[in-house]
Automatic annotation (TrEMBL):
<feature type="binding site">
    <location>
        <position position="296"/>
    </location>
    <ligand>
        <name>Zn(2+)</name>
    </ligand>
</feature>
<dbReference type="Pfam" id="PF03193">
    <property type="entry name" value="RsgA_GTPase"/>
</dbReference>
<feature type="binding site">
    <location>
        <begin position="203"/>
        <end position="211"/>
    </location>
    <ligand>
        <name>GTP</name>
    </ligand>
</feature>
<comment type="subunit">
    <text>Monomer. Associates with 30S ribosomal subunit, binds 16S rRNA.</text>
</comment>
<dbReference type="InterPro" id="IPR004881">
    <property type="entry name" value="Ribosome_biogen_GTPase_RsgA"/>
</dbReference>
<dbReference type="GO" id="GO:0005737">
    <property type="term" value="C:cytoplasm"/>
</dbReference>
<dbReference type="InterPro" id="IPR010914">
    <property type="entry name" value="RsgA_GTPase_dom"/>
</dbReference>
<feature type="binding site">
    <location>
        <position position="283"/>
    </location>
    <ligand>
        <name>Zn(2+)</name>
    </ligand>
</feature>
<dbReference type="InterPro" id="IPR027417">
    <property type="entry name" value="P-loop_NTPase"/>
</dbReference>
<keyword id="KW-0342">GTP-binding</keyword>
<dbReference type="GO" id="GO:0042274">
    <property type="term" value="P:ribosomal small subunit biogenesis"/>
</dbReference>
<protein>
    <recommendedName>
        <fullName>Small ribosomal subunit biogenesis GTPase RsgA</fullName>
        <ecNumber>3.6.1.-</ecNumber>
    </recommendedName>
</protein>
<keyword id="KW-0699">rRNA-binding</keyword>
<dbReference type="GO" id="GO:0046872">
    <property type="term" value="F:metal ion binding"/>
</dbReference>
<feature type="domain" description="EngC GTPase">
    <location>
        <begin position="112"/>
        <end position="258"/>
    </location>
</feature>
<keyword id="KW-0862">Zinc</keyword>
<feature type="binding site">
    <location>
        <position position="290"/>
    </location>
    <ligand>
        <name>Zn(2+)</name>
    </ligand>
</feature>
């Protein structure tokens, strides 16, 4: 099986990045999937299973973000005994990074080199606007173009009106409404699924991400059967992976993202709340917290009905989380502070 790497995004920029690793026993490849330290990679000659080379392991020991992840371009060495190892991970153009609990960690990279980062949310049950805002901040922070995909349109009589309410939580972000079941709206993804482009899907479990990948690719590729090591029968593992699209391009599914500290970037948050950022420029004080300051344009906008109170509350919550996550990374947060933060969040949630 031959793989057209350029269709997967291999271009002059990556070629230049790769040149220091260009030697007869090495070849470029894109990581499709990582499974307990073993990577499935796509080379021009087809898929290869590769373990991590010494240099990569060494770097990853110091910084978990250096572990290869789905979407990475890597240098693979083929050994005479048919083993393959990943010898280098090329610089990532974009990366979805989730903050981890570990205080000395730069975070966990969930996906790399996306061109479009799509927040996937089902239309039924009702879309969760807070979750969309949170994932949108992650999408912006990753550096790819953000997109919102609303799935399961076949379950609603009027998906367009729900899409309109979602637009309030995502100013300026294109929204695609589709159904993986009927295929309606799939063609709207064409600008994002084409040769050289990678579409990444970020969304909660059950949003319909794997169904969407299957619909885009046209076959069932997202599941696999694995023989259990102890021989006690089979179990089915859903895996997340980069999947080449027959007409060119790739889709990358990420694991269902739970609502835990996901930010590493203030910029992502500001981008996701562009309406608040624009208003903030009109506040009397440059460093206005939009709390109770006089001359606060954000509070005025809420009072006049221009800005939904829900939107400001959501921004505040994510801002607090971000501040907290940053401090935790700076290792200045004690266990009791973590506890106090959790309690405070619980109390806030309990309030009507
Ligand atoms: N009616 C309808 N159901 C859908 C559609 N897409 C997915 N579903 C259903 O929604 C459920 C979840 O779909 P998945 O594709 O497994 O969702 P996922 O986001 O990959 O979820 P995880 O695998 O748990 O991460 C399944 O029961 C699907 O059959 C759709 O377009 N219409
Ligand atoms: Zn203000």
């Amino acid at each position: 099986m031959r793989v057209d790497l350029s269709s997967l995004g291999w271009d002059d920029g990556f070629k230049a990045e790769y040149s220091p690793f260009d030697r007869p026993d090495q070849l470029p490849a894109r990581v499709a999937r990582v499974d307990r330290g073993v990577c499935s990679v796509l080379t021009a000659h087809g898929p290869v299973r590769a373990s991590l080379g010494g240099e990569v392991l060494h770097r990853a020991a110091a910084d978990p973000a250096a572990f290869p992840c789905a979407g990475d371009w890597v240098a693979v060495r083929e050994w005479p005994d048919d083993r393959a190892t990943i010898e280098a991970v090329l610089a990532r153009r974009t990366a979805v990074v989730r903050a981890t609990v570990s205080k000395d960690s730069g975070g966990q990279v969930l996906a790399a080199n996306l061109d479009t980062a799509a927040v996937v949310e089902p239309l039924d049950p009702d879309p969760d606007l807070g979750r969309i805002e949170r994932l949108l901040a992650l999408a912006y922070a990753c550096g790819a173009s953000p997109l919102i995909i609303l799935t399961k349109a076949d379950l609603l009589a009027d998906p367009a009106s729900v899409a309109e309410s979602v637009a309030m939580a995502a100013p300026g972000v294109p929204i695609v409404t589709l159904s993986a079941r009927t295929g309606a709206g799939l063609d709207l993804l064409r600008p994002h699924v084409r040769p050289g482009r990678t579409l990444g899907l970020l969304g909660p479990s059950g949003a319909g991400k794997s169904s969407l990948v299957n619909a885009i690719v046209g076959t069932t590729v997202m599941w696999t059967q694995e023989q259990r090591a102890d021989g006690r029968g089979r179990h089915t593992t859903t895996f997340r992976a980069l999947v080449p699209v027959p007409g060119g391009g790739a889709v990358l599914d990420t694991p269902g993202l739970r609502q835990v500290g996901m930010f590493t970037s203030e910029a992502g948050l500001d981008d996701a709340f562009d309406d608040i950022r624009a208003l903030a420029e009109l506040c009397r004080f440059k460093r206005c917290a939009h709390d109770h300051e006089p001359g606060c344009a954000v509070l005025d906008a809420v009072a006049s009905g221009e800005l939904a109170p829900r939107r400001l509350a959501s921004w505040r919550k994510l801002k607090r989380e971000l501040t907290f996550a940053t401090r935790r990374r700076e290792a200045r947060v004690t266990k009791s502070e973590i506890y106090r933060h959790r309690r405070a969040e619980q109390r806030r949630r309990a309030r009507p």
